[in-house]
Amino acid sequence: MSSEIRQLQPQQLWNKFADLNAVPRASKKEERVIAFMKDFGKNLGLETIEDEVGNVIIRKPATEGMENRTTVVMQSHLDMVHQKNNDTIFDFDTQGIDMYVEGDWVKAKGTTLGADNGLGVATIMAILESTDILHPPIEALFTIDEETGMTGAMGLKGGLLKGGILLNLDTEEDDEIGVGCAGGIDVTATRTYNEEDTPEFKIGYSITVKGLQGGHSGMQIHEGLGNSNKILNRLLFDGFENFGLRISEIDGGSLRNAIPRESKAVIAIDAIHEEAFLLEMKLQAEAIKKEFKTMEPDLDILISKTEAPKHIMDLGVQEGLTRAIYAACNGVYRMSADIPDLVETSNNIGRVIVKEGHIHIGCLTRSSVESSKMDLANTLRATFELTGCEVELSGDYPGWTPNMDSAILKVLTKVYKDMNGEDPHVAACHAGLECGILGTNYPDIDMISFGPNIKGAHSPDERAQISSVKKYWKFVLEILKQTPEE
């Protein structure tokens, strides 16, 4: 890890971020980072507890003269999305993130950076460790498994927290103050199929879609980014329609909450059609790349000859699969009628696996309106059930309804304008924040969300803006000074 990260300002925040990024912390594998955080709190002599599900709470008394202020819960999640480029050799289970500075940005070498939500965690750690920062009584809440189910927030019992204000440090635009977010639900389609022996007259090819940007399946779903699973399916569908292409395997995408960047299929075609097939695939690839030339200039589609696969999918199941993926909604389903430019409901077809007689399709459906979320989930369910799939709806979590009369919102709005000479952008977002879940057991807590500029979250292009982190740090310190009295 580059020592230059530790020299950045504010140094106390970047040092804590570097410490945190040395600890592997994939969702559902947070044992080491939980232990790391507990040791951190105990070494400071602060009250430190781990709840039943693995969330860590550290309490710090107010600085002198701030004892009568409302207790503030500062909250961020410990886990990070583990994504890497296919050509990057990296073991997330054993290695710390390899960071470097490029201009005004901190990046990682071929992997996700972990700024989401590591910068929030590091901010809280720096304040807990400080001896000269004015602040009210603080409850630091570090939740687990935000990225793949929000089970930490769901498992946090009522009564553990005493604070009246919650600062969620998980927003990715430094001029934005979050007052609401989308809920979400996982839609998973599975089925088995019979494999057939590949006839001797067929030859093997692989089709690879790569070079896409990927990104956050909530915050970036409206940007028109390419989805490698949908693009690959277009080629498979066309190849079958024109040349009787048969599928052996598909491995597409990685995580539900990441727009898929890379997908690959192993297929078989009749040898007699090889020349015409290659010409058609070339034309299709050129047309698709032309469609995406503005948003996805690095999109690459590779058609490579391989050994003929030993087995191919049952023909009827293959037809149903390619039609279902074609028909399944991906991207924006509905825009909000109440909040300008807000995506209300969307879906991401994040993972497609076809191998050895088993099909698995993983989607993440989001919405700020519960009924619309379930409408789209049922649309997807019906689409996949028509092909014989079993469909499971799981991991359901609620959205966060905006409260425009929030007292802490008024504090943040005033502080931001005083510091920057302009009003902040007060908005709901299409990401899943933990505020909606936390609010179910703590309905009276006054919640707000903000953070520094982070781009490309959930992808190896993730980066954090150094100048924005300076701006955000000053904002945090001023908010703590101006928290209201109890």
What is the topological layout?
Elements: H1 11-21, H2 31-43, E1 47-50, E2 56-60, E3 72-77, E4 99-102, E5 105-108, H3 115-129, E6 138-143, H4 151-155, E7 165-168, E8 176-181, E9 183-192, E10 195-197, E11 202-210, E12 215-216, H5 228-243, E13 246-253, E14 258-259, E15 263-270, H6 274-291, E16 300-306, E17 311-313, H7 315-327, E18 331-335, E19 343-355, E20 358-367, H8 370-385, E21 390-397, H9 407-420, E22 425-429, H10 435-441, E23 446-449, E24 454-455, E25 463-465, H11 466-481
Parallel strand pairs: 3-6, 3-7, 7-23, 8-22
Antiparallel strand pairs: 1-2, 2-6, 4-5, 5-25, 9-20, 9-21, 10-17, 11-15, 11-16, 12-14, 13-15, 13-19, 18-19, 19-20, 24-25
Distance between the termini: 43 Å
Largest pleated sheet: 9 strands, antiparallel
Globally, the shape reads elongated
Rg over CA atoms, rounded to whole Å, is 24 Å
> Please, how many helices?
11
Approximate strand percentage = 25-35%
Number of strands: 25
The whole-number mean of residue pLDDT values reads 96
Structural class: alpha+beta
Summarize the amount of helix as a percent range: 25-40%
Low-pLDDT stretches are: none
